Amino acid sequence: MAATLERTELTMEMVSPDVDLVEYYFERGFTDGLPVVPPTQEKVSEVVAALGGKPEFVECRVAPRWGELSREILAINMVMAGCKPEYAPVVRAAMLALTDPAFNLNGVQATTHVASPLIVVNGPIAREIGMNAGCNAFGSGNRANATIGRAVRLIMLNVGGGWPGDLDKSTLGHPGKYTYCVAENEAASPLAPYHVEHGYKAEDSTVFVIAAEALHSVTNHIANDPEGILDTICSAMSTIASNSAVLGGHCTVVLGMEHAHAIARHGWSRADIRNYIWTNHGNRFIDLAYGHRYGKVYNRNLPKWYKREPDTIIPITPSPDHIHLFVIGGDAGQFSGLIPGWGHMSTPVLRAIDPRVDTVESDCTDGACAL
Questions:
Q1: Given pLDDT bands bounded at 50, 70 and 90, which one contains residue 267?
Q2: Tens of pLDDT along 36-70?
Q3: Residue 357: which pLDDT band, with cuts at 50, 70 and 90?
Q4: Residue 363 pLDDT more than 50?
Q5: What is the 3-state secondary structure (H, E, C) of the chain?
Q6: The whole model's pTM is what?
Q7: 272 or 294: whose pLDDT is higher?
Q8: How far apart are CA 109 and CA 117, in angstroms?
Q9: pLDDT tens sequence across 285-333
Q10: Which of 121, 249, 275, 360 could form a disulfide with 183 if both were Cys (CB 3.0 to 4.6 A apart)?
Q11: Where along the chain do its domains lie?
Q12: Looking at residue 137, what is its pLDDT?
C-alpha cells in the first residue's frame, strides 16, 4: 500500500505491486522535480505516531490554495522527502510558523520575486536529530537539513498549491526552493544563541522562518577587528539591486566562525553587531532613484519620514531589530554571509518546537512570535 496524492486531495490507496512508484509519482506531478521516497502505510504511520497520532487532526491550512494539512498529509510529504520520524516536531513547527498570518505565506508562494522560506533551527533538538550547523551547512550532505527543508517545500507544493507557473509566479526562483534549512552552530559560537537573544532559554528548541533570497558570500581575509569585518557585511547589504533597498523589511546576517570569534574577542555583543551594521550601511537616495532618469516612481515605498535629498542614506532595514544574526559554519575560512529578505510584505516568525503534541485544533499562532 502506498500513499497517492491528488492535487485537490491527499489519500491512501492501493497501488499495484508491479508499478514503479518513483515514476508513478513523477507522472502524477507530486514531486519537487527530484525522485521521492514511496510513502508506504508503514512509513506514514510511524511519522503520524511521532506527531501524536490522530492522522485526521488538522495542523493548519496552507496558502495559496488553503489546503488542510492533516497529520497524515504532513506525514506523507515527510516520508516522500526522506525524513526520519524524529524530524516531525521540526517540520510541524516550521509549518505552523509559515502559516502564521504575519509571515504572509500567500504572498511568498505567489510572488514574482525569488523569495523562499529559510528555516533556521536552534536548541537541543538540532543536535539530537543530527542537523549540520558547521562546514557546508547551507550545502549538501546532511539528511536532516536537506529533508526537513524538502518536506516543507513538498507541503507548499502539494497542499499549498504553489506550483511553478501556476500559483507560484517567481520569475527566476533560486535553489533554496528545493530545500533551505540549517541550524545555528551554538556549540562553537562565541555569542549567545539567536533564540536566547529573543527570550528563550538555551534548553528550548525553536524554529525561525524568513522569506529570503539566496545566501551571498561575504569575504574578508584581512580584517581582524569588528569594524573591518562588519564594514564588509555593510558593503554586501548596500546594493540598489536588493529587493529590500526600496521595500525595507528584514534580512539575515550569517557570521562565519572565524569572523564571529574575531569580533567576540573585542567584547562585542549581538546587539553591538546589529547596531553597527544598521548604522553603517545603506544607499544614497539618488542612486535608488536612478538619478530621476525615469521619474520618481522609486520613491513610493520608502517611509514618509525619510528625506528625499540626493545624498540622504536610505537603510535597507528600518531598524537593527530587522537584522537577524546567526553564527553558522565550519572552523576554517574567513567567510560570512548576507541573505536579503523579500521586503516589508512578510514578517519573520520565531516559534518554539515542542516535542509534545497538542490534542486540540491548532490556531497556527500559539507559541509563535512575529519579529
A1: very high
A2: 999 999 999 999 999 999 999 999 999 999 999 99
A3: low
A4: no
A5: CEEEECCCCEEEECCCCCCCHHHHHHHHCCCCCCCCCCCEHHHHHHHHHHCCCCCCCEEEEECCCCEEEEHHHHHHHHHHHCCCHHHHHHHHHHHHHHCCHHHCHHHHHHCCCCCEEEEEEECHHHHHCCCCCCCCCCCCCCHHHHHHHHHHHHHHHHCCCCCECCCECCCCCCHHHCCCEEECCCCCCCCCCHHHHCCCCCCCCEEEEEEECCCEEEECCCCCCHHHHHHHHHHHHCCCCCCHHHHCCCEEEEECHHHHHHHHCCCCCHHHHHHHHHHCCCEEHHHHCHHHECECHHHCCCCCCCCCCCCCEECCCCCHHHEEEEECCCCCCCEEEEEEECCCCCCCEEEECCCCCCCCCCCCCCCEEEC
A6: 0.93
A7: 272
A8: 9
A9: 999 999 999 887 666 788 889 999 999 999 999 999 999 999 999 999 9
A10: 121
A11: 1-212+345-371, 214-341
A12: 98
Place of cell 510513502: 39
Residue type, 242: S
Least Cα distance to 274 among 191, 207, 209, 350 occurs for 191
